Structures
1.
Amino acid sequence: MPAPDILTFRFNKDNNKLCYVVPPQSLEDGLRTAKENFQDELYDVVPSRINICVNAVVAGTRQHIRISPASWTIVLSKLRPYEVLDIMVQSSPARVPDIVVYSEDGIEKLPRYEDVRDKADPDDFLAPSCAPSPKVKSIPLETIRAAQRYPRRTPSPSRPSQPKNSSSSSFTDIAKAIFGKSSS
């Protein structure tokens, strides 16, 4: 039996939104046809969540049976003209949103879970890329710029070394001072 000349697509069985369609050649074409004809309802629904189903009575109960891509042409060949195919949208899986905090200021904006908050270190709430490293101390930008303005002068073998003064301190000396190590 050849495929019918015309079918009926129904979206939202409760509101009975119906549309006559020329039978699509494949399931993918059927999904495209459904999105075109029910634009308001399906504009933001990804095709993988849309199913086209036939109505059937199984064990005395009316059910929707989804049509798979491989069975599309066979199922269509068994349908009668004007037969109704239901367009069903699968509910999206529940997804817990990610909460990422990029600064310590963001910690204060988190919901208050007092028992967790009292036991946790504030760094536990920071995103891994933003959490301070326990092994590295930060060097203020002003210190870095001061070290760049006054580069370290290494004595040449022909010249005697000059005594250090505060203006000739190097970046290394500043870093050693910050980290508490002596410069000797």
2.
Amino acid sequence: MKRKKLVLPILAIIFLALGVFIMNESGGKKVPKVVDEISDRYGAIVGYDHFLSDGMKNKKLTPLDKENLERFIGTNLDILSGKVSLDDVDDKDASIKVDLFVPKISTDPVINGTLWYTYIISRPSQSARGVVGGFSSDIDRKDGDAPWKYSNITMSNSDKVEIMTNFGQADFEKLELKFAEKFLMSDLKSGVKKVDFSPYSDYKKFHSSDYNWLSYAFYKFTTVKNSAPLTVVFAVKEDQYNEHETYPKNWFYVYMKREG
């Protein structure tokens, strides 16, 4: 009889230990990052060329490039809406590495950071190097307790390669974006349009901040995710503007904002 009484406590201990083990295995470990797997210990990518190669004047995004860019835009929107947390993305998404800008004063909140998205286009072979693609976004919020409010992705790059995004109506529909309006940079400058979509400057100063002067026209879209209203604004340069189109084919900046 005494032996039978010990069975349940022993089983309870075994299941408890097994539960702790499973929790530690599934919740306490980050997935390996794509960029880390192809980099040396100093962070330099080895055996791969970047998809924006030296000497290239322009780059038209391929279906694979667009698929990854759309996925990255969608992830940024999911973060702004609160559908997923930044920690979840950093822990579980192998393609995205999160760098948060930690203030020098430890009591100050973390309010901005950068997301780096990396994907493999082709693996190295005995006769050729591999090719890797990537995009990045900047993300901002008002304080440490607030939800992430702004994010943006640029097609501008240090190699000065003109990226042709080659988007069509179907690409915007995949992102569940609804067209709202189109306006020019001159409309912001004159105050005809009072649309704020950047954390760094309001519509009055937007035209004179950073490289914003390169923008000629803007296409504003809206969507709702996780019950949170979001505004998405695509900027195009003057040579890519078509007054008759509703969907910008070759945009070079996208601004995302959580409203409210």
